[in-house]
Specification:
Elements: H1 3-17, H2 22-67, H3 73-86, E1 95-105, E2 108-118, H4 130-133, E3 141-151, E4 163-171, H5 188-193
Antiparallel strand pairs: 1-2, 1-3, 3-4
């Protein structure tokens, strides 16, 4: 046995027995996974918050528009100013909203006035099924708001990634007795319960 090989063997045995840096080595191996996991949790939270803000904007827009169902000037100007003031943390440039009024008839859905777009249109979204889904009756009018929002996660700097949220809501202007498109009285109990 040569002296250099025995010295090498002894050095290797000393290295195997030495555990003083093992925790740092294990942490260095696991740290990228932990950081990635925390990033995914953070981005999921941001995504849920953005979705909740978006749904709140669409719901509140429909409720506000139902207060003035004749779609007068204060609706056309009030909705954009409400949205720009109430969307903390939302990129309004990524928001598309369309407001329309429709009612059910025996032959299908009748649009009461032309759709109006705010910040961009959502005319390609299917909105007519919402009257059936929300149990509107024949002859009963509704204010319908459809919305789309493009959420850009922080990791989209690595690539062009965008998550698109779509949502629509129908509100009955039951408290507006002067709504000319509404046949008869609305079912107060039905819409008040929702």
């Amino acid at each position: 046995m040569t002296p250099s090989s025995s010295t090498g063997r002894q050095a290797l045995q000393r290295f195997r027995r030495n555990t003083s840096g093992i925790a740092a080595t294990e942490f260095a191996l696991i740290a990228p996974l932990l950081i990635m996991f925390l990033g995914v949790v953070f981005e999921t939270g941001r995504g849920w918050l953005a979705y909740q803000n978006f749904v709140s904007v669409v719901d509140n827009t429909a409720r506000w528009a139902a207060r003035f169902p004749m779609f007068e000037a204060r609706v056309r100007t009030g909705i954009p100013s409400y949205i720009t003031r109430s969307t903390v943390g939302m990129d309004v440039d990524e928001l598309d909203l369309t407001l329309r009024s429709a009612s059910k008839s025996a032959g299908g859905v009748v649009q009461e006035f032309p759709a109006h777009d705010f910040f961009g249109g959502t005319s390609d979204m299917d909105w007519s099924a919402i009257l059936d889904r929300e149990n509107f009756k024949v002859g009963e009018a509704a204010i319908i708001v459809t919305g789309r929002y493009g959420f850009k996660p922080l990791f989209s700097v690595l690539g062009d990634t965008e998550v698109t949220f779509e949502y629509n809501v129908a509100v009955n202007p039951f408290f507006s007795r002067s709504y000319k498109y509404l046949d008869g009285d609305s079912d107060w109990e039905h819409y008040n319960v929702r």
